[in-house]
Write a structure and sequence with these properties.
This protein is α+β, with helices and mostly antiparallel strands and 196 residues long. Helices cover 39% and strands 18% of the residues. It contains eight helices and six strands. Strands 1, 2, 3, 4, 5 and 6 form a six-stranded mixed β-sheet that branches. The chain is globular, with a radius of gyration of 17 Å. The N and C termini lie close together (10 Å). The mean pLDDT is 93.
Length: 196
């Protein structure tokens, strides 16, 4: 499908532990300044959000790592381990990434300060080399969140906020929800029809 759109496609090793490792392999061939990583569970990503991520790279070119974030939709996402979450500093850099909220404040307050981590991020070639060359880190392993490796290594990740919180697809229930959105959400219908 990608080749039909004129994309360059490469098959990488089956031995990679995560997307960062896989992109690191391909970076030796492509040699680009930045790589935008779209994780496979983000099937509903709006292309305009990829444009927003690219614009953020242009504006903040000294930043090495960017991650799309959005508001949480409801209280249940605070404890849903399939919804990866984060807390930001005032400068929009990410303090921590986690699967279940460990905060003791009310759910209403948590919904105001906790953001959803989207499975879409951008990383510079230099940062990719550092992160992929380092040993796995404690929180990265225990939470199974590859972006945490960068934070554990002292690398700042800038949160790039987007409007729509589409579900990531990790479970059968989320897959059914995604199918419903593809059938009923006018924006998703338009996007889907444009690539048929």
């Amino acid at each position: 499908v990608c080749e039909n759109f004129g994309a360059k496609c490469y098959i990488t090793s089956k031995e990679h532990p995560n997307g960062l490792s896989r992109v690191s392999e391909i970076s030796s061939i492509l040699n680009w300044d930045f790589y935008i990583v779209l994780q496979a569970d983000e099937i509903l990503i709006d292309p305009k959000y990829l444009d927003e991520l690219y614009k953020e790279i242009e504006v903040n070119s000294k930043q090495q790592f960017f991650n799309l974030i959005t508001d949480l939709n409801n209280k249940s996402e605070l404890i849903d381990k399939n919804t990866v979450k984060c807390v930001l500093r005032d400068d929009r850099t990410i303090i921590n990434i986690f699967r279940k909220s460990g905060l003791v404040s009310s759910e209403e307050i948590q919904l105001k300060i906790i953001k959803k981590i989207c499975g879409v991020f951008a990383i510079s070639k230099n940062c990719l080399s550092i992160v992929s060359g380092a040993q796995p880190q404690k929180i990265e392993i225990s939470e199974s969140i590859e972006q945490m490796k960068a934070i554990e290594l002292g690398i700042e990740i800038l949160g790039v906020e987007v409007e729509e919180n589409y579900p990531s697809v990790n479970t059968e229930a989320e897959a059914l929800e995604a199918l419903k959105i593809l059938e009923t959400n006018q924006n998703q219908i338009t996007i889907f029809n444009s690539i048929k």
